[in-house]
Sequence to fold (290 residues):
Amino acid sequence: MKTRTIGDVTVSAIGLGGMPLSIEGRPDEKQGIATIHAALEQGITLIDTADAYHQPGTHEVGHNELLVAKAVASFHGDTSDVLVATKGGHLRPEAGSWAQNGDPAYLKEAARASAKRLGVDAVGLYQFHRPDPAVPYADSVGALAELLDEGVIRMAGISNATVAQIREANEVLDGRLVSVQNQYSPAFTSSEEELVACDEMGIAFLPWSPLGGITNAADLGSRHAVFAEIANARRITPQVLTLAWELAKSELVIPIPGSTRPQTIMNSATATTIKLSSDEVQRLDAAVAG
Ligand SMILES: NC(=O)c1ccc[n+]([C@@H]2O[C@H](COP(=O)([O-])OP(=O)(O)OC[C@H]3O[C@@H](n4cnc5c(N)ncnc54)[C@H](OP(=O)(O)O)[C@@H]3O)[C@@H](O)[C@H]2O)c1
Fold:
């Protein structure tokens, strides 16, 4: 599997997004573990999770972290190079709502709870999930700096950040910001600015909902005709073509498609073998711009 780097860690160029395995509509645990095992079998070494990936209601905070930890621990192969990236600062108190808590004391406690659920001394990559308008951004990111200094987390990232916030976070972290996770797909390209800024700053960019999100991923081809056309010509799926197009944006882009079935993550992994021509990339870029 083709690799890329986050900070000083080498990971597969495609990661697995854990969210659909734990929120509403999730499969049973057996299928969830089979999906994560299929990813590991393909050589995927980056798994994205969050303490907020659970059904609404506080009783099962960390559902996805526990599932990922269980799957990694029960995998038959070597998992020493697997990077589990989790996030804190988002909450799902009730159906349909996602709340923020960027309070530094809360984040420090949440990171320790995540490490415990993941069964690790230090979280491999801890990402501040979403800016909290009630808390100065530098204060929230300051908690990540302290967590790094205290050895609770090995690397720090942010999510849902603007270019100004990326620069601010990197300053607060004394140049130790290693990743930014923002929404990016053919249907949502407005974080192109952040992707470009990350490329310039040498920071990994992890597109979330890279296929347009759980409810739109299946019919990606019917929403984006040029993606369907080029995929047909290459005899690949529009989803694989989309991931290859995202990979072509920068050597620092690492898409994290979500999956609830072994087949879909196995299919996504093949995107790392696709080399698009500059003409194809230009046509795809023009299609999403216009
Ligand atoms: N930081 C944030 O605020 C934030 C927000 C949202 C998501 N995320 C992260 O980003 C990850 C990905 O986003 P997402 O799960 O919302 O959306 P997504 O990756 O765009 O779409 C997920 C859906 O794509 C389908 N799929 C995956 N690979 C496919 C393939 N090769 N062919 C056809 N269909 C395929 C899956 O179907 P099946 O169910 O049939 O397998 C799954 O339901 C999440 O899991 C989460 O880790 C982060």
User: Anything to note?
Assistant: Residues 17-20, 48, 129-130, 159-160, 181, 208-214, 217-218, 237, 239-240, 256-261, 264, 267-268 surround NAP (CB under 6 Å). The chain has eleven helices and eleven strands. Residues 25 and 55 are 9 Å apart (CA to CA). The chain has a mean pLDDT of 97.
